[in-house]
Amino acid sequence: MERGELKSTDSVNTGKLNNSKKVKRRALLKALIGIPVLGAFAFELSEKFTYDKEKKSRIINELGLNSYKAPEIIKSSSGAKSDLLRIGIIGYGSRAVSHANALGFMHPDHVEERTKSNRINDWLAQEDLNVAITGICDVFDLHAENGLATARNSFRVGGATSSNIPVKRYRTYQEMLENKDIDAVMIATPDHHHAQISIAAALAGKHVYCEKSPAILEDQLYKLYDTIKNSKIVYQLGHQIPQSVIFQQAKDIIKKDILGKVTLIETTTNRNTADGAWIRHLDNKGNPKPGDEKSIDWEQWLGNTPKVPFSIDRYYNWTKFFAYDIGLIGQLFTHEFDAVNQLLRIGVPKSVVSSGGIYYWKDNREMADLLHCVFEYPDRDLTLLYSATLANSRSRGRIFMGHDASMELGSTINITVDGDSTRYKKYIEAGLVDASVPMVSFNPNTGKVDAVSSATEKYYAARGLTTTNINGVQVDITYLHIKEWIDCIRNGKIPSANIERAFEEGVACIMAHRSYVEKRCMEWDPVKRRIV
Amino acid sequence: MNDKIIYTSGQKFALIAMRLLIGWHILFEGFSKLLIPNWSSSSFLKESQWILKGFSNWIIAHAGVLNTVDLLNTWGLIAIGTGLILGIFTRAAAISGAILLFVYYLNNPPLIGLEYSVPAEGNYLVVSKTLIESAALVVLAVFPTGSFAGLEVLLNNFRNRIKKSEE
User: Fold this and answer.
1) For residue A191, what are the contacts with CB-CB under 8 A and spacing of at least 6?
2) Are strands A413-417 and A440-442 parallel, antiparallel or unpaired?
3) Which residues in chain A have Cβ-Cβ distances shorter than 8 Å to B42?
4) Do A27 and B160 touch (CB under 8 A)?
5) Does residue B3 sit within a domain?
6) What is the ipTM of this complex?
C-alpha cells in the first residue's frame, strides 16, 4: 500500500516482467476493493428484507389480516339505473353544496375553482347516478339561486344529458312535497326542521336523505320512527364515515377480535377556531355574510321554534342555540356515535351522564363549548365516552380500547398492542411487537396528497369525514353514502344509516343533551321505549 | 504538479474507509426507499421549514413532479452509493451526493425557532449529521480517492497504457 500508483507506473516503465505482474495484481486488488463491500451489502440487504418481511407477515398472518383487499366501488346495475330519479333539495347551504356535487352537479364558480386547483377529474370520475335536481327550496334567496345555478349547470358528471329538465324553486317545503315530479328529497336545513320535514316527506311518499341529527326533540323522534317504519320510503341519515375504505378495514379488525375485549371507547372533538365553534356570520375577510330580512323568509326559518326578531347571528350561528340544535352532541357526537354503532352495534345506552359548560366562547351561546358525556352499556360491558373541547385542537382521536390492543380510527387506522396484553405477551417478549408504537397501521392515502384548505375541513379530513382512497382515486365519501341511498331506492334495499340506526342515535343524543340541561343521569326504559 | 503528491497509506486508508462507509449508508437509503411500499418524499417535504419550504410545497402539490422527485431521489441515492463503493465516477458521485445531502439539510436545518413534528435522533443546533455527511463528501470530492482504490484504478492503468503505446 505504501507505494502509490505513480510508482507502479514507474515500474511498468522499467519493463521488468516480475514487477509488472506484481503491480498488475496489486492494481487489480485495489480496483476491485468495492466488490466485497458491495457483496456484503447485498447480503445484509437481503437478510434485512427477509427479516422485515417475516416479522411483518408473521404478525399479519397471525391476526388473519392477510386476506385484506382494497374494496372497489360497486357499480350500479345498468337496468336499475334506467329510471331517472328526480330529487328536490330542501335547505341549500354549504352541506347541500356537497350533496349536489355528490349527485353530479356543481356550481359554475366551483367548477372553475376546482379546475384551477387540478381537482376536477376525481369529481368527474364519479359514476353518473342518472338523477336530476328538479327542485330547490330555501328560505334565503341567495342560497336558492346558488342551488338553481348548480342544478342547471350543464357541465356535470356524465355530460349534459338531462340539462333540459326544468328546475323549480319552491318557497316552502310543503309546496315541494305536493309536487308529483319529485321522487326523493335531501334535507340539509338547520336541525330543528329535520324531523318535521322528514315526516312530511315520508307521508307524501318521497324518499328521504336527511342530515344529522334525525330529531332534536324526543316526541319528534318517536313520531319520525313510527312514520318511516309505516311507510315504504328509503330513509338514510347523513353519516358518510362508514363509507370510507378505512372503515371497512376497521370492521374486519373488530370481526377478527384483534383488540380483545373492548370495554372503553373514547371519542373526542378537538377544535380551536371561531368557525369550529360555530361563529360563522363573517366571511374569510371578516366582513358580514349576506342576508337580511328582505332576502330571508324569517318566519319560515323559525318554523315551530319560539318567535324572535330577525337575527343574522341566529341565522348563521344557529348551532349555538338549543331551540335549533343540541350543540356539540347534535353536530359532532352524532358522527362519533354512528361510527361506533356501525362497528359494534351498541344501540341505545342504558344510562347517560353529561357535564360541561361555556368556558371559552363567552358570547350569547347556550351550547356548551366543553362537554363530556358518559354512555353506559352494562349488557355489553362497555363504556362510551365523548369528550369535546372547542378551545384546544390537540388531537385526541377516536380510540377503541381492548384488553389486548387499542385501535385509533380516523382517516387511518393504528393498532397498538397493550403492554399488558395476554394474547400478545409472547410477541412482546420475543421482541416482535413493541407496545410503544403501532403494530399495524392502515393508510390508504399513503403517498397521496389531498388539498384540504380550512381548519374545519382539515378537522373533518383527519376524522375520515371527507374523502377515501379507492384504488388510487380520491373518492368523496358523501358521494358513496348518497349513492348507497339511491341504489337502495332503485333496488328496494335498506341503507346502512337506516331509521333503526337513526333512532338509536337520536335517543342516545337526546339523553346526553337532556342530561346536560337537566343536570341529572338519564336512563332508557327498554320496555316502554322511553327516556326516564 | 498535483500528480507528484504521494499520500501516506494511513491517509489513503482513512479516505477510502470514509468513502465506503458513506457509500454503504447512501446505498441503503436508496434501497430502503425502493423497498418500502408506496414510499414517498411527501412526508419529508411537508416538514420542510426553511428557505426551501415554498419549493417543497410546490413539489407536493404536483403529483407528477412529486413522482419524478421520488424516482430521481431513490435511484440517485442508489447510483451515488454504488459509485462511492465501487470507486467509479467517484468525484461525480461525491459532488452530487454532497449537493443532495445539502438539499436535505436545507429542508430541515436545526435552526433556532424551527420546530419539527418528528424529533431528531440526536441533539443538533445549526449543524446536523446530514450537514456533516455532506461536508465529508466534499472532502472525498477534493481527494483523488478513485485513483487510490476502486474501478478507476483499472481505468487509469488502461488510459496510461494507451498513452504509452501512442508515445
Assistant:
1) A211, A212, A213, A216, A318, A324, A325, A326, A330
2) antiparallel
3) 447, 449
4) no
5) no
6) 0.87
A70 touches chain B (CB under 8 A): no
Which cell numbers hold the place of A358? 361555556
d(CA B150, CA B90) in angstroms, rounded, equals: 9
Chain B residues touching A451 at Cβ < 8 A: 61
- pLDDT tens-digit readout, A471-487: 556 678 889 899 999 99
Say which residue, A195 or B62, is predicted with more confidence: A195
A74-83, A222-231, A432-441: least confidently modelled range: A74-83
Which residue did the predictor score with more confidence, A525 or A246?
Answer: A525
Q: Decide if A429 touches B, using CB distance below 8 A.
A: no
Give me the DSSP letters along B33-78.
HHHSTT--THHHHHT--STTHHHHHHHHH-HHHHHHHHHHHHHHHH
Query: Cβ A4–B148 below 8 Å, yes or no?
Result: yes
Flag whether residue B3 sits within 8 Å of chain A, measured between CB atoms. Answer: yes
At A415 the three-state DSSP class reads strand
Q: Which helix (H) or strand (E) holds A184?
A: strand A184-187
Say how many CB pairs under 8 Å bridge A and B: 79
Interface test with B, best of A8, A10, A12, A38 (most B CBs within 10 A): A38
User: Which residues from chain B sit within 8 angstroms of residue A49, using beta carbons?
Assistant: 35
The answer to whether the predicted template modeling score (pTM) of the entire model surpasses 0.90 is no
Which residue on chain A is closest to B83 by alpha carbon? A34
Residues on chain B touching A70 (C-beta within 8 angstroms): none
Place of cell 466485497: A36
Can you give the residue range of the structural domain that contains B138? 8-166
Domains of chain A: 82-242 (3.40.50.720), 243-280+317-471+499-531 (3.30.360.10)
**Residue A241 distance to chain B (closest CA, Å):** 25
Set of cell numbers at residue B3 = 500528480
Q: How far apart are CA A109 and CA A160, in angstroms?
A: 17
Number of structural domains (chain B) is 1
Q: How far is B36 from chain A (nearest CA, A)?
A: 10
Least confident of A186-200, A279-293, A349-363, A420-434: A420-434
Place A4 in a pLDDT band, splitting at 50, 70 and 90. very low
